[in-house]
Amino acid sequence: VLGRIGRWGDGPEEYRWPLAMTADAEGTCYIADRSYNRVQVYDAKGYWIRSMPIPGPIDDSIGLTIDPFHHLIVPHFTIDCVFCLSPDGAILTGADAFASDPLDSTRTHRPRFAFFPDDATMWITNGDLLYAMKRIDPVKSPAGF
């Protein structure tokens, strides 16, 4: 074992049921805590930075990722949307900032994972289907995506 981030518990620096995790280029670690509907954020050395609350139960929202603009992307399986959070934890948008191709819909069905092959495209899968989401007018979307 090289190290450990956080610990089990109910406090602000702890998590009860870690469900998914990702890290950005600086080594900041984001851990989805299923029990408290939040993402716990730790720096590259494992020190707690903040909690980021996520609306609704994140029971099966397992595909955290960082977009090309350093936003945290949380596919929310339970409520059929994708949240975009700023690095400081503000919820910038749900799926309404995307236009889906070819469905022409801003909602996905039970999203689980997201991937960004470039600055203008986000791929989302729910385990059955693969959605290609194109970036819409960044002036209208505070998150850019």
Describe the structure.
With 145 residues, the protein is an all-beta fold. It contains no helices and twelve strands. The chain has a four-stranded antiparallel beta sheet, with no helix packed on it. A hairpin with a 2-residue loop joins strand 10 and strand 11. The radius of gyration is 15 Å and the shape is globular. The N and C termini lie far apart (37 Å). The relative contact order is 0.14. The C terminus is likely disordered.
Q: What is this structure, in a nutshell?
A:
This protein is mostly beta strands and 145 residues long.
What brief labels describe this structure?
disordered C terminus; 12 strands; mainly beta; 145 residues; four-stranded antiparallel beta sheet
List low-confidence stretches: 95-106, 138-145
Note the quaternary state here.
Answer: single chain
Tell the overall outline. Answer: globular
**Mean pLDDT across residues:** 75
SSE topology sketch:
Layout: E1 18-23, E2 29-33, E3 38-42, E4 48-53, E5 65-66, E6 72-76, E7 81-85, E8 91-93, E9 98-101, E10 113-118, E11 121-125, E12 130-135
Antiparallel strand pairs: 1-2, 2-3, 3-4, 5-6, 6-7, 7-8, 9-12, 10-11, 11-12
